[in-house]
Amino acid sequence: MPNRLSAGEKAFTVFNTLFMLGLCFATLYPFVYVALASLSDPASLAQHRGLLLKPLGVNFDAYKAVFDNPMITTGYRNTLFYVAAGTAINLVATAIGAYVLSRRNLYFKNALMLLIVVTMFFGGGLIPTYLLINKLGMLNTVWALLIPGAIGTFNMIIMRTAFQSVPASLEESAKIDGANDLTVLFRIIIPLSMPVIAVMILWYAVGHWNSYFSALIYLRDRELFPLQLVLREILITNTTDGMMTGAAAEDKIAIAETIKYATIIVSTLPILLLYPFLQKYFVKGVMIGSLKE
């Protein structure tokens, strides 16, 4: 017969279940609130107090105002470009760096690793970095967002560890057949390290999608702004007046709030829908990249 739970174990199970449900509610409710508020009538939402468990009169005017804003469309287009181009640059640069550091016969490997690890704790600072970007002629160009962060030190260390776990006999066999280092990297090492590569793609892509600070510092041309910088303008600097044409002055404050909520949903929903389908690669890829057999 199965062992019966004692009274203390039952109490702990009930408490643990209730605690986890409360934690899930506290984590998910802010996003649910934003989603429901974005669909609510602005006047009703302005008068509402307390928890919001359903839309207060379904109203899509906020979403219409968001999609009619040309900066949202431009920001989406720019962000998709930054994610695609930036992730490709990150992946290639990180893979090449990790491959070099994973070679067993590399001279001064320990010294190089020490210098690389130091960059995780010390940086040049904002002003020297800005001056460098300016001197390189990348100020107010897309390259200012793509090149400076081409390699993430932590990501390269994880990828290096994964590359080291590939049997050396495969590389030796390939070189006997005339393969060079690039062939070994792209035809042998990377295909055998796809879980880690998938994790790197996800980390870099999410980083580019959420990034706004570099654009805020280095870009002046509004046509180059990413979506997150447009979102910042709407949420923080309250640049919603141009999105409320025809609204009465007393209604503008209420409408501005629903526009902000709708903008948050529009800018975060794509990555939220994509993330659950790719979550499985995180644990597998990180474990492969962090453990050496």
TrEMBL record:
Task: Give compartment(s).
Answer: Cell membrane
Which biological process annotations from GO are given for this protein?
transmembrane transport
Q: Which InterPro entries match?
A: MetI-like, MetI-like_sf
Report whether Membrane shows up as a keyword of the record. Answer: yes
Q: Which UniProt keywords apply?
A: Cell membrane, Membrane, Transmembrane, Transmembrane helix, Transport
Record's GO cellular component terms: plasma membrane
Bilayer disposition of the protein: Multi-pass membrane protein
* Signal sequence bounds: none
Q: What is its main location?
A: membrane
Alphabetized Pfam families for the sequence? BPD_transp_1
What stretches pass through the bilayer?
Answer: 12-36, 80-100, 112-133, 145-163, 184-206, 259-278
What range(s) does the ABC transmembrane type-1 domain occupy?
76-274
Q: Which family does it belong to?
A: Belongs to the binding-protein-dependent transport system permease family.
Return the protein name. Answer: Sugar ABC transporter permease
